[in-house]
Write the structure tokens for this entry.
Amino acid sequence: MDRVKVATVWLGGCSGCHMSFLDMDEFLIDLAEKIQVVYSPIADMKEFPESVDVTLVEGSVANEDHVELCHKIRAASRVVISFGDCAVTGNVPAMRNPLGDPEKILQLVYVDRADTHPIAPKEAGIVPKLVDRVRPVHEEIDVDYFIPGCPPSSSRIKEALTNLLEMGETHLTGENLRFG
Amino acid sequence: MDSNELMEIKEAQIASAKPIRLRCCLAAGCLYSEGEAIKEALENALEEEGLTDQVEVLGVGCMGLCSEGPLVQVDPDGILYEKVKPSDARSIVAALKGGKATAKIGDLSHPFFTKQVPVVLENSGKVDPERIETYIARDGYQALNTVINELHPSQVVEEVTKSGLRGRGGAGYRTGLKWELVAKTPGDRKYVVCNADEGDPGAFMDRSVLESDPHRVLEGMAIAAYAVGANQGYIYVRGEYPLCIKRLQIAIRQARNLGLLGSAVFDTSFNFRVDLRIGAGAFVCGEETALMASIEGRRGTPRPRPPFPAESGLWNSPTLINNVETYANIPLIIRKGAAWFSSMGTERSKGTKVFSLAGKVKHTGLIEVPMGTPLRVIVNEMAGGAPDGGKVKAVYTGGLSGGCIPAEKLDTPVDYESLVQIGAIMGSGGMIVMDETDNMVDLAHFFMEFCVDESCGKCVPCRAGTVQIYRLLDRILNGMGEDGDIAKLQELSEMVKSCSLCGLGQSAPNPVVSTLRYYRNEYIECIHKNPKRNGNKNAVKAAK
Amino acid sequence: MAVKTLTIDGRLVSAMEGQTVLEAAQEAGIHIPTLCHLDGVSDLGACRMCLVELGNSPKLQPACVLKVAEGMEVRTNSDRLRKYRKMIVELLLSERNHVCSVCVSNGHCELQDMAVELGVDHSRFDYIYPVERVDITHQRFGVDHNRCILCGRCVRVCDEVEGAHTWDMAGRGAKSFVITDMNQPWGDSTSCTSCGKCVQACPTGAIFQKGATVGEMQKDRTRLEFIVTAREKKQWIG
């Protein structure tokens, strides 16, 4: 049987969910027999593949690159899973939303309050423009399943993936749904 | 005060009337379009012409046809002058002696006037709201006299029950039944409250009644107080109605001075004091439990019912709350009898109803018609249909809590049950007419913005649900809607309707539900304008 | 007092006249979700989590204020009720800035618990991200309006148990917010007795003890219960 093609993506988040993923320890070895990681920040692929079975999206939609990638993911993936609180709720990255205009926030953080080198990061073509309002992934594209948690524990991720691989769907319940 | 003295005041007032009377409308609309100046100019012109001994100028309340105001009517000639300016005064006076007036002459044979049946508005535009004698001259306070001196409280309740009168504030609860509940609930203190916190967009019936004929409401309240055994009344009137407040204050003072309110009414052991409470601009205070909280000096938010005010209302005492128009019906029901009243209207909706006409019609203003009058008669005949060759598209009745009625259903008679059947309600009587240029999504958006602003915030469905409904409507209206949005709107609306704490929250989604019912295609059209619609999002889902 | 017999979710339950359906259900071990209800203070019927179905009536009633009646037929857990409750929790999560991961009450929050109980894996409604204040002027406590669900427990516990009435509600609609005194900084409040009952009553991390960091703010209701029980049973009166 062909292994399931899995991608993991890191949008506006801290990569904690990926760390938790790696925390699954020896289960990763079992997993490697069933899945093939075709795109991931922890693997070296430059372009998102054209056809993926399952994509785990970590992080919120915080800049224009994220928006573009989201749509690419949705078009290419059979199943999209919001992976962790940032993807599910916006979480910490979205805490900038009430503060308003992102340009002003950049100015404040990188220039006005800077100890050294007061420069706002905005190299055209390199640093993507921030979107006005950070949002969870499902506000940008359709999402099939959700794995909340900041980060979701490795056991929670294991449960979600096991369900998906065995039953073709994964609706977490009970304590596995706890945010935070 | 006794019956003879009341008669004396009536006769003196009638005797003092001069043969010719010029009635100037001084209700809000006309008053703020130079009404006072017109009255003064007419008085000066009469002075100049030396006609003051035969002709008098009266400041009266609303004559109904607000869109043609300021209005002046000549008695007994029966001439109505429209859009009068102070500069027309001389010619109007000259016309009394056969000249020609420069002001436009209105058509009193127009259905706007001929199809009306004034009960609540019988004195509106006829009495001077600031002079109690003019009210007494038209048999004012006679009903109260009869009730106190000749009837047992239970007989009064019975009469109201027999009349079939139902609450004019919106829900249409049987007035007699409500009175009976309060009368039968034991309690040392009972209260009678008049809800004059009219807040629906486009509604100005209660305002007009209070500005034009305040004593009628006071008399109705006093009768109610006698019937249920209360001796304290409150009128909760919104602060945005300064003229109502002023005229009510004057009316209460005059009635008290004549011994018609206060201690020993009609020299009997019946006491009834009425106080005003001024609302501070919260729509929710029109909801009875919030209104009572506000009167008690607490934050004006609703509480769950039961207990209903009849059991436990103001300061936990049995309390009767009726709307302005409900009380205004009472004096005539007593004077002319329950049988007379119930001869008007339909099987289950008796009497008449006052409507305020606003929006895309030729004649806007105030009308009173028997229950059961088809909407088409009101909108097309009386109000003259859409102006400038337009076509009436829909009528929104019942204010915020109501619903829209498409033009094809205009043959629906206005009565409580028929309106509910087509997804609207009688409500308090606001009627907003829309023509073909009006977008129904925009209408729902407007109403929902109002709901968001006016939600008190106590219960979650109304506080947070209306915000989300508004956001969805905003998105759809601005061409950013998604295919699933209509389903989401419906789901949210159903939840807010079923779960909200008070009537306002429960009816907050009505504008969305009723426009979706009849104008779903307009929502779909708006959504189809979204250039990004279906993007990758749904296309992929469909392919799955 | 008379005993009333009713059915809750098909079970025969007896309760004292004057008791609420919520009390009757709790005594019978039937769980009805609540958020604004707090044992020992009056009920508002505001959060609508405890709505139940009655007989054939289409109208839902809040169990916390609904009095038991003979022959009453109550359903507490229909598909319809679960659907509405879930939506209400989603609405609460989206209306303010509830960021569990950085909240002092993470793991000990009644709103978070409710999301778990009702299977909320995400909010279908747009997050509003309003601008909300944080008041840490009080020496020992703080209030973070980002996490407030406007349940009014602080208002009631302060008024009815402590008797200070420092807290109240201001504004309206989504812009409502709890205030101390006449909307003065909490630290300047002259009526506040610093008893901390509001801290213990608050279901989320909105009112907290200073110095607590993420997940450390555990609310302790035992002292509230102690005082309320003592008062109801008149334990301190000779």
User: Anything to note?
Assistant: Residues 440-528 of chain B form a domain with the de novo design (two linked rop proteins) fold (CATH 1.20.1440.230).
